[in-house]
Amino acid sequence: MQMRALLDRIPTGVWLAVIAVAMVASFRLGLGARDTAAGGGPEAGPGSVAGLRVRLADGRDVPVAPARGSAVVMVSSVSCTFCDEALRDVARTARGRALPGLRVVTLEGADAGASMLARHGLGDVWHAGPAGDGASALLTFQFPGTPTFLLVDASGAVRAALPGYPGREAFAPWVRVMTGEADGLTRGGATVPGGASGAGA
User: Fold this and answer.
1) Distance (Å, rounded) from C-alpha 124 to C-alpha 147?
2) How many CA atoms, within 13 angstroms, populate the side-chain half-sphere of residue 176?
3) Which residue intervals of the chain are DSSP H helices?
4) Does the bond joining 147 to the residue before it have cis omega, within 30 degrees of 0?
5) 162 beta partners
6) Could you please report the per-residue DSSP string of 83-98?
7) C-alpha torsion sign, points 138, 140, 144, 150
8) CA 123/CA 116 separation, integer angstroms
9) pLDDT for the residue 39
10) Residue 73 near residue 64 (C-beta atoms within 8 A)
């Protein structure tokens, strides 16, 4: 009953704004229109993060898409245990190799993301947070949960999306993009292209 009283205190205009942001965000990335690939693999389909800007730890707002090539954008949260598991497995799989094709966007901000990455020995990984207070809410509605992984090319096109973490073995093709060994994902003998060759940082 207390929850109902709390919800009743929120003005109607705020609810309408939240619903509008959620609808725009879901259509912007096209998440609702994608079919999940067989076998629990990445979802394929249209979408774009071309206009999405994030804030680096130094306060600069930059595009989330790489300048060239492909990258895996990981949307994470410090309260997400699967995010921690994914980062731990990425570190183990990479075995000290650089990860120029990994871009981590932490909902709580770049500083929170830096701490999370450092715990797993990934302190050199590109990381950012939402670009402002409103951007945090927008990111929360744009993605179906954390972690969410997006294969993004330099134009900002989302070539594949993977909500959740499938485990180390199933995630190996994504790590190959992160290390720059691959520019797309291979699944069932076919490759989901990421863009021009080479991983952008």
Assistant:
1) 20
2) 17
3) 2-8, 12-29, 81-94, 110-119, 133-142, 168-179
4) yes
5) 149
6) HHHHHHHHHHHHTT--
7) positive
8) 9
9) 36
10) yes
Q: Please check whether residue 124 is in contact with residue 94, taking contact to mean a CB–CB distance below 8 angstroms.
A: no
- 15-73: pLDDT as tens digits: 444 444 443 344 344 443 333 333 344 444 458 888 889 999 999 999 999 999 999 99
Structure tokens at 111: 């500083």
Residue 75 confidence class, pLDDT cut points 50, 70, 90? very high
pTM for this model (two decimals): 0.72
**Is the predicted pLDDT of residue 161 greater than 70, yes or no?**
yes
Is residue 110 predicted with pLDDT exceeding 70?
yes
Q: Which residue has the higher pLDDT, 160 or 142?
A: 160
Distance CA 177, CA 71 (A): 7
Residue 148 β-bridge partners: 75, 163
Cα–Cα distance, 200 to 101 (Å, whole number): 6
